[in-house]
Amino acid sequence: MINVLVAICLISGALFMLVAAIGVLKLPDLYQRLHASSKAATLGVALLLLGAALDSGETGVVSRCLMAIIFFILTAPVGAHLITRAAYYQGEPLAKETLSDEWAEDRSDQEREQNNVDS
């Protein structure tokens, strides 16, 4: 039974990693690429590590895998968000297909403040 769970975790983790890789290659702009890589890859790595932990069964390996999963889930989305926000404020263009720009108001406020400081 445990071998079936390990196989499910490893195969689904590999599929999520494949989806992340395809997203990085096919999506039109930096923002969508980072979204694909951070979300799908985080889940893929978590499933792969869970499969490794289940397969091992040793307490040391299981605890290391669980700590790595927690670390990755906490840091990967935050890092992607910070990179995306920095790219936005540096002027990286959005894709033509983008329907809304929720940071536009923040960006215009920041530009006004910058102009007031420069004056």
The helicity comes to over 70%
Query: What does the main sheet amount to?
Result: none
Predict the CATH topology.
Helix Hairpins
Strand % is under 5%
Number of strands: 0
| Helix vs. strand class | mainly alpha
How do the strands and helices of this protein lay out in sequence?
Layout: H1 2-26, H2 30-56, H3 59-89, H4 104-118
Summarize the structure.
The chain has 4 helices and no strands.
Describe the structure.
- The chain is mainly alpha-helical and 119 residues long.
- The chain has one domain (2-118): Orthogonal Bundle (Helix Hairpins), CATH 1.10.287.
- It contains 4 helices and no strands.
- The protein has helices at 2-26, 30-56, 59-89, 104-118.
- The model has no long low-confidence stretch (mean pLDDT 88).
Based on the model shown, name its key terms.
single chain, 119 residues, mainly alpha, Helix Hairpins, 4 helices, elongated
